[in-house]
Amino acid sequence: MSARLIDGKALAAQVRAGLAQRVAALVARGVRPGLAVLLVGDDPASAVYVRNKIKACEDCGIRSVFEKLPADVAEADLLAVIRRFNADPSLHGILVQLPLPRQIDPQAIIDALDPGKDVDGFHPYNVGRLALRMPVLRPCTPKGVMTLLARTGRPLEGLDAVIIGQSNIVGRPMALELLAAVIAAYGLEQTAELAKNMPGF
Q1: Which of 77, 120, 166, 196 is catalytic?
Q2: Is residue 117 annotated as part of the catalytic site, yes or no?
Q3: 120 catalytic per annotation
Q4: C-alpha to C-alpha distance for 49 and 112, rounded to whole angstroms
Q5: Total-model pTM
Q6: What is the spatial order of strands in the sheet that 34-40 belongs to?
Q7: Model pLDDT for residues 73-127, shown as the tens digit of each residue
Q8: Angle, alpha carbons 49-53-56 (nearest 5°)
Q9: 114 part of the active site
Q10: Is the dihedral of CA 177, 100, 74, 94 positive or negative?
Q11: Which residues of the chain have pLDDT under 50?
């Protein structure tokens, strides 16, 4: 079987164009979506990633609020910023750039987010909804993979998938996304039967 190239950049452009139209419709109704982006420290890769996210917001007409905190910030001070963002009705999403410095417990920060504003989909509420096949906000990379696969127009039934790693950011939610797709295709009982032959399932 020959490999098939999936053009992620072209798909991203289509998604952003559609999103810009939806944002414009909201703005016309008096609601401008707002995203808070929080960066702690001076990690160069994180800075580039955050810059790209802010640029994407600008391209789509989304208001972005950027806050940068020093690498030695206390966890209590970071939590205070998150509480402020949670309480701000003009901010509809909050993104905390990971990784965080060692003195900060990342799970405590994720747990502190309003689940309805957790745009990365890492809060236990959102991960739990994904596990129950009732997703709301979903981890971005796995959701992006599923979007790419869907745009190929090829059914996933009968294909093999290999997930390397089991992080809470990519590996585990990717497994949940694929499992949900299998259940949607085969039904719960047949999926359980298939799972008996899946190593490590």
Answers
A1: 120
A2: no
A3: yes
A4: 22
A5: 0.86
A6: 63-69, 34-40, 93-96
A7: 999 999 999 999 999 999 999 999 999 999 999 999 999 999 999 999 999 999 9
A8: 140
A9: no
A10: negative
A11: 201
